[in-house]
Amino acid sequence: MTQIVDRFIAVSRFLMREIHAKLDPLGYARSIGVTLGENVHFYGMPSGMFGTEPWLITIGSNVHITSGCAFVSHDGGTLIVRKELPDQE
Predict the structure, then answer these.
(1) pLDDT at position 47, please?
(2) Which of 16, 73, 13 is CA-nearest to residue 49?
(3) Residues 24, 27, 32, 35: what is their CA dihedral angle, to the nearest 10 degrees?
(4) DSSP letter for each residue of 63-79
(5) What is the pLDDT of residues 26-68, one digit of tens each?
């Protein structure tokens, strides 16, 4: 029974994020930590475009972003040297 409740909560959170992204894309982007300038427009939902570290992204003023755009804030490049430098981030 707990797995069903946990799954329901996870699906509910996902749906709420998607609804927030659809109804208020700028508010959604700000809520996850993206810094936005003035006159920014999203064409499409921004829910999947910011990757794992959205707080590292700053978008300037007078920017129009199309659907399908992806901002990559972390590429996992440190994984290559992790064996030699274990505390490298």
Answers:
(1) 77
(2) 73
(3) 130
(4) -EE-TT----S---GGG
(5) 999 999 999 999 999 998 877 788 888 899 899 999 999 988 8
Mean pLDDT across the chain: 86
CA–CA distance, 37 with 78 (Å, rounded to integer): 30
The helix/strand/coil state of 60 is coil
User: What whole-number distance in Å separates Cα of residue 15 and Cα of residue 21?
Assistant: 10
Average pLDDT over every residue of 12-16: 91
43, 65 in Cβ contact below 8 A? yes
Q: Enumerate residues 6+ apart whose C-beta is below 8 A from 51.
A: 70, 71, 72, 73, 74
Per the listing, tokens 């029974």 go with 1
